[in-house]
């Protein structure tokens, strides 16, 4: 178990690069009180209809759990804790995209074709190398030469567009009715980065789907255009605390900030061993997180998440440091499989269809 006294994250040598300043249109998403937080999309059991022999089955493993982001004075800390809601669940995956940006994936990001005994897509492995999206220019400018607002494309849109194209290809294999609600996302991506001459920012990108029946039980699945919302920096006058996103979504009172504020005994016990941890907790609750060091924020998040996570749940903790780039307090778990590898589909993995009339949410499959 990593100690709270770790002096810094283990950093790679990837240099920082300049990024243009931008703001995209804001879309509705669930905000958790007391933080600039969002609980995004209810949990589904992901399955095709097993009775439809004429339709190829596709299944997906879920990246599920809690994501907590703290913007400190010298770095951004990103921590995730797994919620093992079903077999083959994985923690929300942190994927470095450059020296100053990471993506966190939630939902169906690992796809299998059981009939071919192979993995169709592994989004966390593929994301950094996905080709530029077809609908955007390869080298976009924002507002002409000065990098202002109102440009045709942005870095965020480039990343989101690449993932949209990949999900569109995956959707070509989905021909059963998934019974998703309108605008319900198939996958959610959180983007965390530093922007030159602007500062830290956190975006949530959702990928809703639309299905149309064609003939018999055959459905055409379309991944709609990405929907964006910026969670950091918060609006003027809003508290500057932790940013929290969860899958499956948690009640407002169950997010980490609310648990700390209410004196949750598990967290209180974890923080009692160190006055520095208690001071960090108080500063975060008072909206002074940007006055803290990334090391202090990381230690607080580690201990708090460990105290509230299920037994055996895996964690990931990264830092985007202003000087050293991306490093790890807790590195992602190693996975032997690679996209496209010929392997038998793991037992117990969910199928890609929620039965009609069966509500989503915790405990529903």
Describe the structure in your own words.
There is one protein chain. This protein is of the alpha+beta class. It has a single domain, classed as Glutamine Phosphoribosylpyrophosphate, subunit 1, domain 1, CATH 3.60.20. The protein has helices spanning 123-126, 155-171, 256-261, 265-271, 275-285, 294-308, and strands at 10-11, 31-32, 37-39, 59-63, 65-71, 75-82, 93-98, 101-113, 118-122, 185-195, 199-215, 218-223, 227-232, 243-247, 315-321, 325-330. The strands form 2 sheets. Strands 1-16-15-6-5-14-3-2 form an 8-stranded mixed β-sheet, covered by helices on one side. Strands 4, 7, 8, 9, 10, 11, 12 and 13 form an 8-stranded antiparallel β-sheet that branches. The radius of gyration is 20 Å and the shape is globular. It starts with 9 loop residues before the first strand and ends in a 35-residue tail after the last strand.
From the 3D structure, determine the CATH topology: Glutamine Phosphoribosylpyrophosphate, subunit 1, domain 1
The N- and C-terminal alpha carbons lie at a distance of 33 Å
Tally of helical segments: 6
- What pattern of helices and strands is seen along the backbone? EEEEEEEEEHHEEEEEHHHHEE
Q: What integer value in Å does the Rg equal?
A: 20 Å
* Category from helices, strands and their pairing: alpha+beta
At the first level of CATH, the class is Alpha Beta
The biggest beta sheet is recorded as:
8 strands, mixed
Strand content: 25-35%
The total number of structural domains is 1
Helix content: 10-25%
CATH architecture: 4-Layer Sandwich
- Give the low-pLDDT segments: 1-8, 12-54, 137-153, 338-365
Shape: globular
The average pLDDT score comes to: 77
How many β-strands, per DSSP? 16
**How do the strands of the widest beta sheet line up side by side?**
1-16-15-6-5-14-3-2
